[in-house]
Amino acid sequence: MKLKNVTFIFLICFLFASNIHAKIYSWMDENGIKHFTDSPTNMSIKCLDNSSAFTFSGTEKTQENLGGIQGEKALYKRADQLMNEHRGEGDKLIEAEKLLQKILEINPNSALAYTGLSRVVRRSGQVGGKYSQPGYLAKSQKYLNKALGIDPTLYDAYWQGVYLYSKGNDLQTAKKMAQKAYEINPHSAKTDIMFAQLAFEAGDEDAVIRRSNAVISKTRNEACLHDAYFFLVKVYKKQGKYVLVEDTYLKSLEAFPNNAWQLDSYAGFLALRNRLDEAIEYAEKAISIMDFGMVRNRLKKLYIMKGADLLYNQGKPKEASDFFLSSIKYAPSAEAYIGLGTSYSMIGSKNKDNELLKKGIEAIEMAIELNPENGAAKRQLKAIRRLL
Question: Is the whole-model pTM more than 0.85?
């Protein structure tokens, strides 16, 4: 009896010792469901950014330094994230391309890398980037075909194909790509996004709404949710349902309060509704999170609109001048300098302040320098000079 107990205890100790360095990986899938596995190769490509590994002892390697399929997946996931974050600035696409080329150095036959390169070329071509020359869609298709030739079961390749062929106005091929993706992973939120994209292209508004709401109900993946809210906003705007448009914006910002792109987009909607103070508030919050071209241009215009309202509608040139100066800070324009010069001239005329009138002349002259064809600026310049 004692011998049996000793043997049992020894066996337990042996088993525990043999697993003392084993790792347990936890990861969250794109639908927000947490999983556990003892092998990193069992982790979803889409969820590596949400993964973690813990061990009883030892130093962990970063995922990107791991060899084989795990390192390849980690590099691809990082490149995919950069492409999701890209909204017109080229640096993120350049960085993503470098990561994908690094994969090819490790594995020249990586279907993941060629899928990613197809997406880099497509997105760069769309925004006037490195691959914006004629034929960028054909180059993107070439990379995609290579990826599918290596791995005809790769979900991401078909997902990329939907957007690529939609961009090329080949909806039939895009639909075939979506069907293939559906066969591989019918329950993914990204599958619903693909069909929402196709429905949007086809003008099927009911299907867009249904698919987008399905995504919102099943996932916490920011990229998928961003696209779902985007489609809903576009459809509701087209239908003139502005209450639903605003409700959709607010729900998206409740989910992602620090998404600079969504804050900027909502600011644009508020400006169209002539709610300038709110529009400026949201645009300023967006640029405080991330300084990018779109929001700078938005603020430039919003400050001019607010300044013009104060100057011409409310008769408040001092307050107006502050907004015109703010606009110039982001991007000098003839319109802002005309508003500034007019504000200075009104204050200078009222207070008989020749120095301020001269500043008004300087501002108008700057407007004419920026836009020599601006007849309004030339007429305003003559009017101010007569006041001296």
Answer: no
